[in-house]
Amino acid sequence: MLIINGEIPALGEITDNLDCPVITFGLTKECDYFADNISFDEHGYGHFDLICNGTKEAHIDLHVIGRHNIANALSAIALAQYYHIDMDSIRKGLLAFEGTERRFELKGSFNGVTVVDDYAHHPTEITATLTAAEKYPHKHLWCVFQPHTYSRTRTLLKEFAQALSQAENVVLADIYAAREADPGDISSRTLQEELKKLGKDAYYFPSFEEIEKFLSEKCINGDLLITMGAGNVVSIGEDLVNK
């Protein structure tokens, strides 16, 4: 049995001639499992009507934000129903799920500023996280991004800039090298310049201490601050919350 996103390109190339049941999910009516009447509440949590093979089966309430999590919920529902789990248990399980560590994880607040951390370190993930953040109540959105590895930053430089340009305010930390040596020809300043080409001013600071000082001075009550990346950028938000 294959449960697959029905909106991916060239779906037929993957599913044609498979010798197993194929179940599609997604946000379009052509999918076997489809979310209709999507809405988001004041916390940014998703709600939708579950349509299965053209028939409304239930209303689903989630405790996570973003359209991508609605798609995730649809795939979970499809799998649960395949194994004959009753709808009441499915609905309760989805409502009880509050997300995973480092995926739009609420860290706390400082001076009325909500601090969230997310592991996003690829342009597609960044776009999904920032799109979800738009549904979360806030005055101004601050994204603190720490690029992960020099090679990835170089390869996806334009894509990173395009994804980050969605944020109202962008603050860049130095690249998290992981096991790579600094090649000397790519840095967060390179990404800053790429963002400027798109008309987006971004702030860059070489140390976490400088970033924390800047944010503590610039963020105001009601703002949303997201630390983003696969490295140790999470400590910036934690330090601000714990001061």
Give structural notes.
The protein is α/β, with parallel strands linked by helices and 243 residues long. The chain has 2 domains: 95 residues, Mur-like, catalytic domain (UDP-N-acetylmuramoyl-L-alanine:D-glutamate ligase, 3-Layer(aba) Sandwich); 138 residues, Protein-Tyrosine Phosphatase, Chain A. The strands form 2 sheets. The protein has a 6-stranded mixed beta sheet with strand order 6-7-11-8-9-10, sandwiched between helices.
What is the gist of this entry?
This protein is α/β, with parallel strands linked by helices.
The run of helices and strands is EHEEEEHHEEHEHHEHEHEH
The neighbouring-strand order within the major sheet is 6-7-11-8-9-10
Count up the domains: 2
CATH C-level name of the largest domain: Alpha Beta
**Number of helices, counting only DSSP H or I runs of 4 residues or more:** 9
Using the CA coordinates, give the radius of gyration: 20 Å
**Main β-sheet description:** 6 strands, mixed
N/C terminus separation: 51 Å
**Percentage of residues in DSSP E strands:** 25-35%
How is this fold's topology laid out?
Layout: E1 2-5, H1 11-15, E2 22-26, E3 33-40, E4 45-52, E5 55-65, H2 67-82, H3 87-96, E6 105-110, E7 113-118, H4 123-134, E8 141-145, H5 150-155, H6 157-164, E9 169-172, H7 188-197, E10 202-204, H8 208-218, E11 224-228, H9 234-242
Parallel strand pairs: 1-2, 2-3, 7-11, 8-9, 8-11, 9-10
Antiparallel strand pairs: 3-4, 4-5, 6-7
Helix pairs in contact: 4-6, 6-7, 8-9
